[in-house]
Amino acid sequence: MNERPEAAGSAGRAGNGIEGCALVTGASRGIGAAIAKALAREGWPVGVNYRSDAESAEAVVKEITDAGGRAVAVQADIVDPETVDTLFKRLEEELGPVLVLVNNAGVRADGLSPQIDDEDWAKVIDTNLSAAFRLTRRALRPMIRNRFGRVVNIASIVGAEKANPGQANYAASKAGLVAMTKTVASEVARRGVTVNAVAPGLIETDMTEGLGNGLLDLVPARRAGTPDEVAACVRFLTSGDAAYVTGVCLTVDGGLTA
Amino acid sequence: MSTTVTREQIEQRVFTALEEFGAEPDQINADAEFEGMDVDSLDLVELAQIVEDEYGVQLKGEDMEGIKTVRQAVDLVMSKLQ
């Protein structure tokens, strides 16, 4: 069996002796990388999923293992339904059943609505919403059987909370993700499985580069957030302390939508 | 999957699963209705998953429609095994 290494602090651990691992999609950089590292610090062996940037994913793995944690880089284009089962089986063999799933992988293809073509619409919905559902569906199997599971979907304040011109596809995908979160949460709550979302506002990452300059003045905190600040919320929602928190969307935006 | 699985083995496995779901052991028998044992839709989803994992039989939502008793569930699994 896979033993989780002792976490530095035990406060956030599930603490019920269940052996398993965490899978973070799109974890080679930005918010995903920060989440992978945060979960590793909690003692979870982590599957660091990436699509194309193997070098960055390996760097995340190295950082985790150097700090005494366990992690493997797992390549998979999560949009491809065929790869989902392969991804889970590999992790099950190497690290144990996936009991924490963080659907973080996301894409943007911005444009004002008259200029968003079918391809850009489909690409964003497929990655941000449909792939997240497929992964969740697959992950629920071991979670339900183990009477423990944590799904955290990385949404956005753009969507149900807020309009952002040029992101009709992105907003629709993220609003859908929150709706999916709430529905699945209500279906599986009695099995000890929680399903929540985290909605970051303006966060300093490659993906948001160039987006925010005018926006910063609107943020009550007067600064962009960091990937670590988003990861901290995910860490809480995956912990034993959050066992009674399910179906929520936790906003991390420095007050932008307050 | 193995063709040597018997009806009794499957029935026994269903009984064990029902106990795990919280059904009272003395209420569990082949003709007991799931509803009467407080076995709900999520329990049936998990039962389908157990059957798939252990016997390689895939049960879809539509297959499960109208399945009300243990006997009907075991009949369904047996029919898929053949």
What does this structure look like?
The complex is a heterodimer of chains A (258) and B (82). Chain A is of the alpha/beta class. Chain A has a single domain, classed as NAD(P)-binding Rossmann-like Domain (Rossmann fold, 3-Layer(aba) Sandwich). Chain A has helices at 30-41, 54-66, 81-95, 118-146, 168-188, 227-238, and strands at residues 21-24, 46-50, 71-75, 98-103, 149-154, 193-200, 249-252. A seven-stranded parallel β-sheet of chain A has the order 3-2-1-4-5-6-7, sandwiched between helices. In chain A, helix 1 (30-41) packs parallel to helix 2 (54-66). Chain A is globular and about 50 Å long. Chain A starts with 20 loop residues before the first strand and ends in a 6-residue tail after the last strand. With 82 residues, chain B is mainly alpha-helical. Chain B has a single domain, classed as ACP-like (Non-ribosomal Peptide Synthetase Peptidyl Carrier Protein, Chain A, Orthogonal Bundle). Chain B has helices spanning 7-20, 41-55, 61-64, 70-81. In chain B, helix 1 crosses helix 2 and helix 1 crosses helix 4 (70-81). Chain B is globular, with a radius of gyration of 12 Å. The interface between A and B is small, with 7 and 5 residues.
List the helices and strands and how they pair.
The complex is a heterodimer of chains A (258) and B (82).
Chain A: E1 21-24, H1 30-41, E2 46-50, H2 54-66, E3 71-75, H3 81-95, E4 98-103, H4 118-146, E5 149-154, H5 168-188, E6 193-200, H6 227-238, E7 249-252
Helix pairs in contact in A: 1-2, 1-6, 3-4, 4-5
Chain B: H1 7-20, H2 41-55, H3 61-64, H4 70-81
